[in-house]
Amino acid sequence: MSKTQNTQHTRRNWLIGLGLVALVIAAVVWNNSRGQQQPLKIAISPSFASSLQVAVNEAKKQGLNVELIEFSDWNTPNIALNNGDIDANFFQHQPFLNNAIQKSDYKLKPFAVGAASHVGLYSKKYKSLAELPTQARVVIPNDPVNQGRALLLLQQAQLITLQQPGNHLSNLQQIASNPKQLKFIEVEGPQTARALDDADLAFGYPHYLRLAKTADPNDALLLDDNKSALYAILFVVRDDYVDQDDRLAKFVEIYQNSPEVKTALDQEFGAKLWFPAWKLPAQKAI
């Protein structure tokens, strides 16, 4: 091969190699761009849709694409997350998450803290707890954690006493005294608001009551005295979750700091019925 041919051959190989490098770079850029276009998927319950949608709209202005997926029950969001179908969920507090992990061996963990709300006792038939008759029908959640929370509130109202007064996982079998012989109706947590029409008294969440339009959340006969982050709603992810480009962290920052989201939370819960739990000391695992 002549010197000229050898030079041409070398140049041709160099150009081919340069072209392959360009193709590889283009493929990487395309894949990264494609990945960035995939929305951050967060499962929620309908009662949190309003404030989260405001956060989604604010995030979009900053170039962050977030998709909310609503589930009407309190089991599917953890199943979907554990299976890797979504990136995060936002519907449960720490005690509920702990119980779900214990019962189903989910590989999940908290990522960040959201809002916390008070809960209350509500009635459409009576104006005070003193009016409540013997054998009144009382609606409470049927899941172990939120049932315990309801029983603690009934104990705060001095309607019952518990065998372990401070146990947030108490159940109906652990009621020590029930002087009014209350009759308990167990329903799924999201349905407590709708069951209010058929009962004398119901344990209620402000956001579900507002969503169901069955009662004004501000008209509780008694609100709990909880002021801790224990029952704050959490952003939850899988144990192996990698926050690509800090997208979830950015979304949480928007949720926690946006004035528009605060206004939505005031409307969703009631301005005096929620508080920013992320400003409180971190709650220890229980």
TrEMBL record:
Cross-referenced InterPro entries: Lipoprotein_NlpA (IPR004872)
Compartment(s) where it occurs, according to its Swiss-Prot or TrEMBL record: Membrane
Main location (coarse class): membrane
Membrane topology value: Lipid-anchor
A Pfam family annotated for this UniProt entry: Lipoprotein_9
Gene Ontology terms: cellular component: membrane
Ranges that cross the membrane: 12-30
Keywords: Lipoprotein, Membrane, Palmitate, Signal, Transmembrane, Transmembrane helix
Domain of life assignment: Bacteria
Signal sequence segment: none
Family: Belongs to the NlpA lipoprotein family.
Protein name: Methionine transporter
Organism, scientific name: Acinetobacter larvae
